[in-house]
Amino acid sequence: MKRLTPEELAETITDFVNSYSHDKKAFIEALFRQHRTLQQSTIRLFLEVIEAAAEPEYRTDGRNENTKQICQEVVQGFKMVRKEKDGKYYMETGPSRYLPYI
Predict the structure, then answer these.
(1) Measured between alpha carbons, how far is 9 from 14 in angstroms, rounded to an integer?
(2) Which of 44, 47, 78, 102 has the CA that lies 20 to 30 A from 54?
(3) What is the full per-residue pLDDT of the chain (102 aa) written as tens digits?
(4) What phi and psi values does residue 86 have, to the nearest 5 degrees?
(5) Which residue range forms the structural domain that includes residue 10?
(6) Is the pTM of this model over 0.85?
(7) What is the number of domains present in the chain?
């Protein structure tokens, strides 16, 4: 199987979600049948997408402004939880940095 470029992978994912009939549950189940290390790397990537969408540079309009808002809330919520657990507030540390590379 040919390895997809980042652009091709993004296109494949957006093609998948560009339908009301896409089977999210089957996608999640298939992902969770992958090797555990690959699952962690994939979740880290998803978290990095959330962190990027939370950044001020992420441009929005009426179609995706809620994406930015929710992503900001996820990142801020994570930081608040870490502050409660660690006693520190890590301004620069998002959730993806808490998943180690294994």
Answers:
(1) 9
(2) 102
(3) 789 999 999 999 999 999 888 999 999 999 999 999 999 999 999 999 999 999 999 999 999 999 999 999 999 999 888 888 887 766 667 899 888 787
(4) -100, -15
(5) 6-98
(6) yes
(7) 1
